[in-house]
Amino acid sequence: MSLHPHPDPDCEVLADTLGPSPAATGGPPPPPPVRAARLFAAGDSLLTRADTLLERVLPRALNPLAQLGPAANAMLLLATLSGVLLLFWYSASVQSAWHSLADLGPRSFGGLVRSVHRYSSDLTMLLVLAHAARTLLARKFADARWLAWVSGLGLLGLVWFIGWTGYWLVWDQRAQLLALDTMKILDVLPVFGEPMQRLFTTDRTVPSLLFFVVFFLHLVLPLGIVAGLVLHLARLSRAPWLPDWRLSAWLTGAVTVAALVYPATNAAMAQMAVKPTTLTLDWWYLWPLAVTARLSGGGIWLATTLVTVGLMTVPWWLARRRPRPVYQATVNVSRCFSCTLCSHDCPFGAITMVPRTDGKPFPSQAEIDPDRCIGCGICAGACDTQGIGLAWFDAQQVTRELEVFVTAEVARGVAPALAFVCAQSDGGWELFDQTGWARRLPGYTVRPVPCIGWIEPKVIERLISKGAAAVLCVGCGSGESFCREGNQWLSARLKGAREPAFRPGRADPRKVAQLDFDPLRPQLLTAAAMGLRQQQPAAKAGPRSRLGLAGAVTLLTVVTLAGLLAVSDAPFRNPAPADAEFIFTFRALGGRVPANAPVSTAPDDRPIHMRAPVPVGRTRTAVVVRLELDGRSEQRIYRPKGLQSDGASVGEWRVLLTPGRHRIAVSVATGEAPDATRQDWSAEINSVPGRLVVLTFDSAGGFQLEP
């Protein structure tokens, strides 16, 4: 049964009464949508070859390269569900987080859930990155597609940040490194009254509240992904959220196998007094650690801003600015009879039916949304009356030209063969290789079309009725086709499953064929084209070998998991120096400064009740810190915090140490005056490479040498 029944009255009959439109003259093709189009075409061609190679044994529904976005969603869903289940074992606190995960047996049910959570998250990132790269190479970021590109990058950043917070919650050495680097980044912002990094110098001072905030973000932020996906897919029709259930099951099984064969484990427990040196990292999420340790906080913000702005603005600096009327579809209202087929077939939801404006007795007319139309031309293939389509590639004009050509060839005694070839097979209209296609299709007159979904079955019927020996429609073989559903809709129309349908009573169906181009085996296209001209039935592809299918699935699974795990647990050497280090971190209150008079340092021997009152303001004096190391001393002055300099002085002093014993003395004075109150500390310490000696101070508790 036809998916979209043809409406009454018969639109074709009504259109024929109007005759050809005098405005149907066509025009020059629009400029290419992107710069460096040849480079993008080369990259997309490589991926198309990978598609056709995989699809020799896999149906397209199981080809991961053709389902990258939905497959990423499936793995994200698996990561979310396994993360929720992991809460039965996980304890969200600085003191017990590491133990709650380390105590899980690597192949116990809890350990399996933990490993599935990690590897499904890694596979999500792999699929998202591959989806972004393929979208870029397919040039699907220009014009109306800018929203999908920008929102997609936002989703990529959100997925990465959720993974970043997830590794924080393990509280091992990986978490220690990313916590320190995160604090270095945040301390640049004028948000916190005191440097946050100083809280991460000792295990005792690590804030439990901040740990809970990270845990809360890790749980709540996945909800933002749902909202982001709604925005990401807002301009697509029939966009799948999840792949075929078989592909979901395949990916879930692969992740489970990885979890059993190579269980996820903790790194050593985080100890703030110990500098991590060599460990393994999940580079899918923790790769910034290789950069942040080498840059200052301001440098990290600058690099992040430049990269983010550069990627987010790709649709403006890498795409060409093209006037919309040059490439978008247009509606000839006089030929629109409210059939609604174009609005159903548009892959981008760019066509809506609106109230009639010309007084004709039809309820509605088609209208193009310029914010959605990409100029694919699929709407032209859905219109029996040729009332909608591309002005520069007008269906009426093209049909007239081809009918005249066929009539002239038949008059010469030659029955011509025609081939409609999707221009996207070569990377776009401007790169179409007319000579190469003539070589692949000997004896055919080759005519490129914006997408084979542009072909309306009535055009094929007319050409055959005029005497054409064969009409071949060649679609692109890419799993990430530029126009999305063109191949699918033409196939359904030729089979009579979708209106407007091909009518065998008007043309011999044996003279019509549709094929997707396989760039790895162009000889198959040549053979099929020759068979079509000779009225030989096309060779049907035999059933896929179950053994070949199983072998392909196994090989692809092994290769993917090997690459996934290699990146997920790759070696990392901390670029920070491994020297021993002495750290003095403090929070001290300076003395009060009189409000209206200078502070007098002269002694006043009078009785207390006879002394003049000294006005005291809010402003505090600076704190002076003197550090003496093995007889060498240095002094630093720390100004009070606050807009009115009325807060505490907060600071951190780091000194690299050579291995061995050192004599250290520290004094903290509440002002710069010689008689300011001061507190002293001194001790002999033993420094060990890779370890920190941390001394803390606050005005209430005094000095404390951390264990």
Could you outline the blueprint of secondary structure elements for this entry?
Elements (H helix, E strand, L loop, with lengths): L10 H8 L18 H18 L13 H19 L10 H6 L6 H29 L8 H23 L4 H14 L21 H13 L1 H11 L12 H17 L16 E4 L1 H4 L2 H4 L4 H16 L1 H4 L6 H4 L1 E3 L9 H5 L5 E5 L8 E5 L9 H4 L6 E3 L4 H17 L5 E6 L11 H7 L3 E6 L7 H9 L4 E6 L10 H9 L17 E5 L5 H12 L12 H23 L1 E4 L6 E9 L34 E7 L2 E7 L10 E9 L2 E10 L8 E10 L4 E7 L3 E4 L2
Parallel strand pairs: 6-7, 6-8, 8-9, 11-17
Antiparallel strand pairs: 1-10, 2-5, 3-4, 11-14, 12-13, 12-15, 15-16, 17-18
Helix pairs in contact: 3-5, 3-10, 5-6, 5-10, 6-8, 6-9, 7-13
Supply Rg.
35 Å
Number of DSSP strand runs: 18
Terminal CA distance reads 79 Å
Tell the overall outline. elongated
Q: What proportion of the residues is helical, as a percent range?
A: 25-40%
The fourth-level CATH homologous superfamily of the largest domain is: Cytochrome Bc1 Complex, Chain C
Treating each run of at least 4 consecutive H or I residues as one helix, how many helices?
A: 23
Largest sheet: 4 strands, parallel
The average pLDDT is 90
> What is the CATH topology descriptor of the largest domain?
Cytochrome Bc1 Complex, Chain C
Task: List segments where confidence is low: pLDDT < 50 over at least 5 consecutive residues.
Answer: none
Strand order of the largest sheet: 7-6-8-9
- CATH class descriptor of the largest domain: Mainly Alpha
Q: What count of domains describes the coordinates?
A: 3
| Structural class by sheet pairing and helices | alpha/beta
Strand content: 15-25%
The CATH architecture of the largest domain would be Up-down Bundle
